[in-house]
């Protein structure tokens, strides 16, 4: 095909055609999205490498290898491992290798205008890429809800949408749950109609090393809030092995090892592994008032551990002290991560997470990369409402909406994304119903939640936009001589 100087989009022979979506302009270039097997595959063209198109690592993963982005005509140098990667970083490295010899500003002439059949041949794809005019950037609207019921309903909608996509793509859905105040919010999921529960596989991002009937058990909380009422096969609920957590002397390390072994024994159509890490479809995360996620606490050495998937901790600052947890690389390898923040007490930390992202002082929650959604329950006139201010604890770019909520002016890098009020505030009593203080035990919180009023039907806009891989920043980094392997920047 002679695509000299450009990255060529190739479809494997048996894959379904890509459906081009309208192109958008975004930070660093023009972005084109394709719909493929129900997933968006964004490609972008950057000013740094005119004529070249790139896709994010996460999009590559989500395409499940069905779409290949490669550079025609240039073999990767053998001694550069990264240049052999099939994803955007590899493609970029290959282009960097070749850029002295080629004219990167020249798009392949045979696809510039008259290529046949826009979506079924590489030339056609190029043609549609080149001819689609840029559109306005999409709005992304993660939301703050004045009532926990509304936040729970939005979370339910988001989760079941993610499940539908995963099931359509590979026949199963893997979701990993946190504990804490998130647990009560899970109740909303059971009222969604038409869920293919038999395709769900449920895990825990962290678990306290206690028996299942212990009020501190995250498994027990999720069981009471959701699992006991939905027909997920028991064999697809991956709780900690409680036989390893019976006494105060129990070793969390053994429980972690057992959990990891069980995950590694799952077939790849249930839990795919990429770059040595499991790719969960969705993580439902909380964050603590200190910014911890899972059982990864600020300043704790576990944050830096990269090899094992599941880690143990015996000195958790949040009781109980013995726990097992996903490692940070496992968290970041997941396809989607959703933060749920309950109550105004989390607003200050939410602001800190937004502001410290990408900085040395980032708290664990700010180290989570990739695709995010955030649902928060709080008072738009209270703690979360203050996020609009530029003062201490405030976040630039977020302003109050007419209805008393807060909404972002534009999705800026490092934002917790746009935040919008979902309606008028509910009573204090109702606010407390699904959103506990976090200090009460999981089971107590669920009991309280059961007494809440039924949820309201509501409009909900899912978060779809990727935090894109910033290729220009990565190039600047490499030029500055620093380690450029910021592969999870997407
Ligand atoms: O076992 C746990 O403690 C949880 O799994 C933990 O990961 C939780 O998500 C955060 O601690 C936030 O908890 P709160 O929402 O209760 O603050």
TrEMBL record:
<protein>
    <recommendedName>
        <fullName>6-phosphogluconolactonase</fullName>
        <ecNumber>3.1.1.31</ecNumber>
    </recommendedName>
</protein>
<feature type="region of interest" description="Disordered">
    <location>
        <begin position="376"/>
        <end position="490"/>
    </location>
</feature>
<comment type="similarity">
    <text>Belongs to the glucosamine/galactosamine-6-phosphate isomerase family. 6-phosphogluconolactonase subfamily.</text>
</comment>
<dbReference type="InterPro" id="IPR039104">
    <property type="entry name" value="6PGL"/>
</dbReference>
<dbReference type="GO" id="GO:0006098">
    <property type="term" value="P:pentose-phosphate shunt"/>
</dbReference>
<dbReference type="InterPro" id="IPR006148">
    <property type="entry name" value="Glc/Gal-6P_isomerase"/>
</dbReference>
<feature type="compositionally biased region" description="Basic and acidic residues">
    <location>
        <begin position="467"/>
        <end position="490"/>
    </location>
</feature>
<feature type="compositionally biased region" description="Gly residues">
    <location>
        <begin position="380"/>
        <end position="396"/>
    </location>
</feature>
<keyword id="KW-0378">Hydrolase</keyword>
<feature type="domain" description="Glucosamine/galactosamine-6-phosphate isomerase">
    <location>
        <begin position="147"/>
        <end position="372"/>
    </location>
</feature>
<feature type="compositionally biased region" description="Low complexity">
    <location>
        <begin position="107"/>
        <end position="123"/>
    </location>
</feature>
<dbReference type="InterPro" id="IPR037171">
    <property type="entry name" value="NagB/RpiA_transferase-like"/>
</dbReference>
<comment type="pathway">
    <text>Carbohydrate degradation; pentose phosphate pathway; D-ribulose 5-phosphate from D-glucose 6-phosphate (oxidative stage): step 2/3.</text>
</comment>
<feature type="region of interest" description="Disordered">
    <location>
        <begin position="104"/>
        <end position="143"/>
    </location>
</feature>
<dbReference type="Pfam" id="PF01182">
    <property type="entry name" value="Glucosamine_iso"/>
</dbReference>
<dbReference type="InterPro" id="IPR005900">
    <property type="entry name" value="6-phosphogluconolactonase_DevB"/>
</dbReference>
<dbReference type="GO" id="GO:0005975">
    <property type="term" value="P:carbohydrate metabolic process"/>
</dbReference>
<dbReference type="GO" id="GO:0017057">
    <property type="term" value="F:6-phosphogluconolactonase activity"/>
</dbReference>
């Amino acid at each position: 095909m002679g695509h000299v100087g450009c990255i060529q989009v190739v479809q494997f022979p048996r894959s379904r055609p890509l459906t081009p979506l309208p192109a958008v302009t975004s930070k660093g270039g023009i972005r084109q999205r394709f719909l493929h097997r129900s997933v968006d595959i964004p490609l972008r063209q950057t000013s740094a490498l005119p004529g070249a198109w790139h896709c994010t690592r996460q999009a590559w993963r989500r395409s499940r290898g069905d779409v290949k982005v490669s550079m025609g005509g240039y073999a990767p140098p053998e001694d550069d491992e990264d240049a052999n990667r099939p994803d955007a970083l590899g493609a970029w490295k290959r282009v960097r290798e070749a850029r002295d010899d080629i004219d990167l500003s020249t798009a392949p002439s045979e696809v510039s205008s008259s290529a046949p059949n826009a979506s079924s041949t590489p030339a056609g794809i190029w043609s549609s890429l080149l001819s689609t005019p840029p559109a306005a950037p999409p709005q992304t609207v993660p939301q703050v809800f004045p009532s926990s019921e509304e936040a729970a309903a939005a979370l339910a909608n988001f989760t079941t949408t993610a499940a539908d996509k995963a099931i359509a793509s590979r026949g199963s859905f893997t979701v990993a749950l946190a504990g804490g105040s998130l647990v009560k919010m899970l109740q909303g999921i059971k009222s969604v109609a038409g869920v293919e529960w038999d395709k769900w596989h449920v895990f825990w991002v962290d678990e306290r090393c206690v028996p299942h009937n212990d009020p501190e058990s995250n498994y027990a909380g999720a069981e009471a809030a959701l699992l006991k009422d939905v027909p997920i096969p028991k064999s697809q609920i991956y709780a900690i092995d409680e036989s390893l957590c019976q006494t105060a002397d129990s070793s969390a390390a053994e429980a972690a090892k057992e959990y990891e072994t069980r995950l590694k024994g799952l077939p790849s159509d249930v839990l795919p592994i990429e770059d040595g890490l499991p790719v969960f479809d969705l993580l439902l995360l909380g964050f603590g008032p200190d910014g911890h996620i899972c059982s990864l606490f600020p300043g704790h050495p576990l944050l830096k551990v990269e090899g094992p998937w599941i880690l143990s901790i015996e000195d958790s600052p949040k009781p109980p002290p013995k726990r097992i947890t996903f490692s940070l690389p496992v968290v970041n390898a997941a396809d989607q991560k959703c933060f749920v923040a309950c109550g105004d007490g989390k607003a200050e930390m939410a602001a800190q997470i937004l502001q410290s992202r990408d900085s040395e002082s980032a708290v664990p929650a700010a180290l989570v990369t990739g695709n995010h959604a955030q649902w928060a329950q709080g008072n738009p006139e209270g703690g979360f409402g203050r996020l609009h201010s530029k003062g201490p604890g405030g976040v630039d770019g977020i302003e109050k909406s007419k209805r008393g909520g807060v909404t972002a002016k534009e999705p800026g890098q490092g934002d917790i994304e746009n935040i919008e009020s979902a309606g008028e505030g509910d009573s204090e009593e109702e606010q407390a119903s699904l959103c506990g203080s976090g200090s009460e035990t999981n089971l107590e919180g669920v009991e309280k939640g059961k007494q809440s009023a039924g949820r309201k039907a509501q409009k909900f806009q899912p978060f779809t936009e990727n935090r894109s891989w910033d290729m220009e920043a990565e190039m600047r980094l490499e030029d500055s001589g620093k380690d450029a392997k910021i592969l999870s920047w997407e």
